[in-house]
Design goal:
This protein is of the alpha/beta class. The protein has 12 helices and 9 strands. α7 runs parallel beside α8 and α11 packs parallel to α12. The structure holds (3S,4R)-3-hydroxy-2-oxopiperidin-4-yl beta-D-xylopyranoside.
């Protein structure tokens, strides 16, 4: 007996309905499985294709219910905007302070969000004591710092930005001059090897800005470094594209080529700090579709919740206005995510 099957009359009814709609120029699913309903939050919509949609969280705003309501509802990944940086986590040499970082981490964990770690080795936001170090002592301090922070968060961070912004702007393709760079060219690979040993469960990322345009010298220089690391077995798992788009560094349609090219080296890619001057809905949709087009693009993080939370608030570059209202860019991102196909079933 056909106990679980749909009665023949219902099947026939559906077919007739589909046929009628087709005549009217309307499409209807003929298959009995219902099409997945559109999701109404960014995180849920990104999850349709196995990706996440994150935001930067500032610990100082966690007491603002308007902020936490939006952040809690829309995003399923969190990056601490400043709280896991070097000056925050090691204010005195060898004396670690995770108070603010844990505030962000704990909020994320309580709200079932994954966490991107940001960032372990960087020329900027170094505490005063580190800024004044040079040579061997600075190299040792970098290693101690990576070990100290990664040990504290071991097993809890999905991706770490191990090294941030190590390349120079402009056409040189050179490394950025910094106290870390002056300890020797190998400082980046030492950072990655140290990081792999400190927390083998985290994906280890190189993160930078102005590396989205495939024709830029800076992009090609980072690409050459990642290729070299993969060839020599230096542990690197992902590249983060900050994606701060503005009039000076506008979005270019070749971003997808960049993401594909890096992925072809055998690393994952992620959009890690997205904001767009003026928040063009088209640009936001393009960036979203670029990530969706590349299987190794893990997800997208926007650099803040409302325009008023942005480090560049004057550019109104985010998805929510200062009153928490959804902007046109929000809708274009959500629609792009919802249009993505379901994640393939594992196995
Ligand atoms: C920015 C924060 O948003 C600001 O609050 C802070 O004053 C400076 O840093 N690239 C990065 C981020 O990797 O850490 C930066 O965040 C923005 C540029």
């Amino acid at each position: 007996m056909r106990t679980n099957a749909m009665p023949r009359s219902r099947v026939r009814g559906r077919a007739l309905l589909a046929g009628a709609l087709a005549v009217l120029g309307t499409t209807a699913p003929v298959a009995p499985s219902p099409a997945a309903a559109a999701e109404d939050t960014l995180g849920a919509a990104a999850a349709r294709s196995g990706r996440y949609f994150g935001t930067a969280i500032a610990s100082g705003r966690l007491g603002d219910p308007a902020y936490t309501t939006i952040a809690g509802r829309e995003f399923d990944s969190v990056t601490a905007e400043n709280e896991m940086k070097i000056d925050a986590t090691e204010p005195q040499p060898g004396r670690f302070d995770f108070t603010a970082g844990d505030r962000v981490y704990d909020w994320a964990a309580r709200n079932a969000k994954q966490v991107r770690g940001h960032t372990l080795a960087w020329h900027s936001q170094q505490p005063g004591w580190m800024r004044s170090l040079r040579g061997g002592p600075l190299r040792q301090a970098m290693i101690r710092h990576i070990n100290g922070v990664m040990t504290h968060y071991r097993g809890k961070i999905v991706q770490w930005d191990v090294v941030n912004e190590a390349f120079a702007d402009g056409g040189s393709g050179a490394r950025r001059d910094s106290n870390l760079q002056r300890t020797g060219d190998d400082w980046i690979e030492v950072a990655f090897r140290t990081a792999r040993a400190a927390d083998p469960s985290a994906k280890l990322c190189y993160n930078d800005y102005n590396i989205e345009n495939w024709t830029a010298a800076k992009t090609r220089a980072v690409y050459a470094m990642v290729r070299d690391f993969k060839q020599r077995g230096v542990p690197i798992d992902c590249v983060g594209f900050q994606s701060h788009f503005n009039n000076g560094s506008p979005y270019n349609g070749n971003f997808r080529t960049t993401l594909r090219s890096f992925a072809a080296l055998g690393v994952d890619v992620a959009i890690t700090e997205l904001d767009v001057q003026g928040a063009s809905a088209t640009t936001y949709a393009n960036v979203t579709n670029d990530c969706l087009a590349v299987p190794r693009c893990l997800g997208i993080t926007v650099w803040g919740v409302r325009d008023t939370d942005s480090w560049r608030s004057g550019q109104t570059p985010l998805l929510f206005d200062g009153s928490g209202g959804k902007k046109a860019a929000y809708t274009s991102v959500l629609n792009a995510l919802n249009a993505a196909s379901e994640a393939p079933t594992p196995g």
